Protein: EF-hand domain-containing protein
Amino acid sequence: MSYQNNPNGGYNQGAGQNQGGGYNQGGGYNQGAGQNQGGGYNQGNMIQDQQLSMWFRMVDMDQSGVLEAEELQRALSNGDFTPFSIETVRLMISMFDRDNSGTIDMREFVALWRYIEQWRDLFRKFDADRSGTIENRELFDAFRAFGFNVSPKVVDNMVSKIRILDGPKKSRYSKGINFDRFIYACVSLKSSVDTFHKLDTNKNGIVNLDYERFMILQINGK
Ligand SMILES: [Ca+2]
Ligand SMILES: [Ca+2]
Ligand SMILES: [Ca+2]
Structure:
């Protein structure tokens, strides 16, 4: 994936609230994930799809044929021996549960997995000091690269909020946020920015909210 060709690329493909999961969307990685295409590259992906379906069956502990949140959490790794946080898992389900079943079936899982693979590349790219975590400055650079014009103060606030979610024990050992929190931060910011643009009807960068609208926004996030 090349986010340089599209400054908002990468996570916009799946992150849009109304777009749903990855597999019906255009773009290079979706083509690669297609089952019916020939060529060496796609063969490689097909093997991966088989491995994914094996992995899916392994983590489907109750053999229900779908992944519940806890099972999905077990399936997704941060790459540092920690599982995804349940908040990020729920966020992923809300984005990829196309049939609104509340669970992830095999087809949804493949799209979700490909999406997370893209994020792994971005994570590596923005972890400039190779610390294995994204520190405030790195998150700031990522947001800017994605076209989000936020101040360092917003980034600091976001990182503090996320690190509180991690609990005091984990926060003591690292300054930054790990892989799933990085996805969480970027997708949440995207959703906030989208909400803002929706409310900023005359596009002057200022949103006027009455009390009722503000309360609904606080409660529903939209
Ligand atoms: Ca299950
Ligand atoms: Ca589903
Ligand atoms: Ca880092």
Observations:
- The domain at 22-126 is CATH 1.10.238.10 (Recoverin; domain 1).
